[in-house]
């Protein structure tokens, strides 16, 4: 079977490096983690406000023109999942599947968090770190997560505002793609009920709940998340099967 690559989309204030640990564990699966515009190595100038739809249009240009990928599987975490859902609605016939990690069909953001991010308050980063990881996360995981958030602080308010205005609940029934939905049992940012709603409204979807895990699954439980993805790829119709291929992040070869 011809192997389609998986394109990984990070969440608010993140970058392609959010997926580094997961890519290590995915091994032979073809995977590409990209930076959204204005993030990481794509530090383009963006308007003060940008929507999930705007990001989806930009991602599609990267996927179809820059990377020239044919029928990829799109995987997204949190805001990246909202972008993946939007791509499924706008370009479903040109995709091979969806992987939705810690996300929802609507992503309302608390007013106090939005205000802290707008003013650049360090409280916004501290709150996100607290809500994204479970209490048993290692100190090194917390440090790496906070460092990544700090590097994307300039984009955080714009991203959270894009999340806050996103809502595709009424359109989920239009999605006709093999879909894997994964959530941490202790996710405080996008609780299990968000993923359950996706599962109930996307026909034929698969829901996996990872015990004792929070929101940042790819950083907190990368090995287990990789196993879940690999098992779904092996079982899902019209999806790639494992084989020797490549992993990349931000367009650079994974070694």
TrEMBL record:
Species of provenance: Thermogemmatispora tikiterensis
Start and end residues of each AB hydrolase-1 domain: 6-227
Gene Ontology CC terms, in alphabetical order: membrane
Organismal lineage: Bacteria, Bacillati, Chloroflexota, Ktedonobacteria, Thermogemmatisporales
Name this polypeptide is given: AB hydrolase-1 domain-containing protein
InterPro entries: AB_hydrolase_1 (IPR000073), AB_hydrolase_fold (IPR029058), AB_hydrolase_sf (IPR050266)
Name of a matching Pfam family: Abhydrolase_6
Transmembrane segments: none
């Amino acid at each position: 079977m011809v192997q389609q690559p998986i394109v990984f989309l990070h969440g608010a204030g993140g970058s392609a490096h959010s997926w580094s640990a997961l890519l290590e564990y995915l091994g032979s699966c073809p995977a590409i983690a990209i930076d959204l515009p204005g993030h990481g190595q794509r530090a383009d100038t963006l308007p003060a406000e940008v929507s999930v739809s705007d990001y989806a249009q930009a991602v599609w240009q990267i996927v179809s023109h820059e990377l020239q990928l044919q029928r990829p599987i799109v995987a997204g975490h949190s805001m990246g999942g909202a972008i993946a859902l939007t791509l499924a609605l706008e370009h479903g016939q040109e995709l091979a599947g969806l992987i939705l990690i810690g996300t929802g069909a609507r992503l309302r953001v608390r007013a106090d968090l939005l205000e802290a991010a707008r003013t650049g308050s360090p409280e916004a980063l501290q709150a996100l770190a607290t809500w994204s990881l479970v209490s048993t996360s290692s100190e090194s995981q917390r440090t790496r997560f906070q460092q990544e958030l700090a590097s994307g602080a300039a984009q955080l308010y714009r991203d959270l505002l894009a999340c806050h205005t996103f809502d595709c609940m009424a359109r989920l029934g239009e999605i006709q793609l093999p879909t894997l939905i994964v959530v941490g049992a202790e996710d405080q940012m996008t609780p299990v009920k968000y993923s359950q709603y996706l599962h109930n409204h996307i026909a034929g979807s698969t829901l996996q709940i990872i015990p004792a895990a929070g929101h940042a699954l790819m950083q907190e439980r990368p090995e287990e998340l990789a196993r879940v993805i690999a098992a779904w790829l092996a079982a899902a119709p019209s999806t790639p099967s494992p084989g020797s291929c490549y992993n990349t992040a931000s367009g650079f070869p994974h070694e």
